[in-house]
Here is the input.
Amino acid sequence: MADWFVHYASPYYDPEKAHEYYEQHKQLKGKRSTSQLNDEGKKIWEYTKNNITAEKKAKMEEQKKAHEKQIEAHREKAKETRTFITNRLKDLNKALTEKAKQDRTNVSNKKKADSDQISEQAKQEKERITKENQAQIKRLRDQTVPSGLSKEAKAEWIADRNAKIASLQEDSKSAKDKISADAAGKKAEISENAKGESDRIGEQLKADKSVHSENTKNERQKVSDDLKSVISATREAYKASKTQLNEDYEAIYDREYEKIYSENKKVKKSKK
Here is the structure.
């Protein structure tokens, strides 16, 4: 083989394969001019250049896949974060709803307990009045008509006793009616207060959910904004890395070409 196989050494060049490649691709023209190279140099350059190009292409493809993988990772992370935020809101709202339900149950239970207490107090008070009334009426009824009274006086005495009994019964009824009315008023007040407290719990639940929903919306928007920023930065970095790769390989092209040129210059024939 020719001497140029011995001189030029490069990781992009294999002498045996270079000769075979050159014979198969004579029609290809290099990016850099080969007019200053001899035939052997042209062979070396064609083969070397295409090996460099193949390596560059492979690295660019590797770089592209890494970039796409990075973008997908950012999107997946953002998706997971948004899902976490949404699920957290659901759990929080569920906890708020359960608490509101329990608070309303407590209000209802207190309302019933207070109403039952008022009913029991009213019942005991009525029973006391009834007992006292019955005792007073019994004392009146147990009285005997004084002896020696005329028929007219005796009738008057009995009528007076019956009037006192009727008055006691009327007073008892009035007192018990008042107790029932007071109890009903107190129960109505308790019911109204309980309704107000239950409504307040509902409004507070609505307000809390609204705040958490707004916070969640802002958090999700921040995730989206951050994703846009990181994707933009990643794309800029990828763009810069492609530029750098092109520059690096342009330097490699130049370096390898200069090596080949230094050892395989075309010899100009002198005019006789």
The radius of gyration is 54 Å. The first helix runs from residue 4 to 7.
